[in-house]
Amino acid sequence: MTTVDELVAIKQRVERELLDRPGVTGVDVGYKEVGGERTDQVAIRVHVARKTDDVPHEERIPEQIEGAVTDVVERRYELHVATLELDVSAQADSTHYATLQGGISMGPSRAIDNHIFAGTLGAIVVDNVTRARAALTNFHVAAVDSGWHTGDRMVQPSRIDTGVVPADEFGAILRATLSGNVDGAVISLDPGKASSCTVAGIGAVRGGRAAVLGMAVRKRGRTTGLSHGTVDGIAATVNVDYGDGLGVHTLTNQVSIAADPARNRIFSDHGDSGSVIVDEDGFVVGLLFAGAGPSTVANPIRAVLAELDISLCTGKSIVKDLKDGRKDFLKDKDVRKELQKEFALDKRIKDIRDVFKEREHGPGPLGPGGGQELEQRLRAVEDQLSGLGGFVGPELRPDLVSPLTGPESLTDAETRQLRAELEQQVADSVAAKSEFDAPPA
What we know:
- The chain has 441 residues and is α+β, with helices and mostly antiparallel strands.
- It has helices at 4-19, 139-142, 301-308, 317-323, 333-343, 345-357, 370-386, 412-437; strands at residues 24-34, 37-48, 64-65, 68-74, 78-79, 82-83, 99-102, 104-108, 117-121, 123-127, 133-137, 153-155, 169-178, 183-188, 194-199, 203-204, 207-208, 216-221, 225-241, 248-259, 276-279, 283-292, 295-300, 310-312.
- Strands 6-9-8-12-13-14-11-10-24 form a 9-stranded antiparallel beta sheet.
- The longest helix has 26 residues, at 412-437.
- The protein starts with a helix and ends with a helix.
């Protein structure tokens, strides 16, 4: 049986020819449908604007390509941004949020051709350049067209949703991209604007990971709120019309999402563009940008983070897991990489080790300089530990200095005991780091 990786390779070889056929809107690898019902068979799927039997023989999709089973699905993709004229759902979220978070209404302050627009603030992120918090959404939500500029102001909620300019402005475009993989934009947060590393109705963001076929996912968007679905296609290449000035763009290596019909008729609608798609464990897998009926398409989150030079802002659930003794999530290499990047743990643990490596044993009970030098070094270590911020709270950090606040003169036995206690506390910190670094089981 052909593997998923083999199907992806075949799809990549033939997709250009398939996309050039009349009416084809996309190609991916996903679950084959029979009679409108999903099967467990994985196939190369050709997306068309309209399924019909009235297709010339030379334009028909063969039942197999290079030995791989094919399927034809009806999907005409549209950007899921809302405009003022659109008859948007009555359930659209028009709340003015004092604390910015993912899953809420936002839009540009400027009007474009006398139209105003609404989309979704997907998640709070961290700008890798400045280390400041920012907001993530789509290019076509924030920039909209070719007339955008860095510094264009944004409002929350959108102007469609009663947002007022300038009273409800919260930031401005830092950078945006509409590439062959990503439709994304990063928005600065104005000084003093509160933000949370959470998605409304979902909870804390715990990091990012790759989507896989069959993965259960959810999103919270401005228009349809919380909805549930399944990853039913990967390595998708889709053609999407971005309108005047931008035209049709082809995006590759995208993620296809099918709505969970038992919980919601559709997964997304106009106004949900910019939402992040999250798995059951709180990890972001994609950035929603377009849809076709009950189906949705998203940028893979890894590509979004790389092109926009940002990191996901993770909530306190990781810290809670550590405090509760849960370490299984550290087996996920994406989580470890994110934490190492965020907190520079390798360097800080090295600093802790160096305090003891560099200590020279001299005539005094604690080496040259005695207790004063050691205290200075240990305070430097505590400064490093305090820099870990939310990862290691004060209640979890080893107390390296307070043992030195006792009597100034120590016996040899007390010195040995003190040294052993201090080294054990540092060893415990190093052991925690080692488990953090251990490869997945």
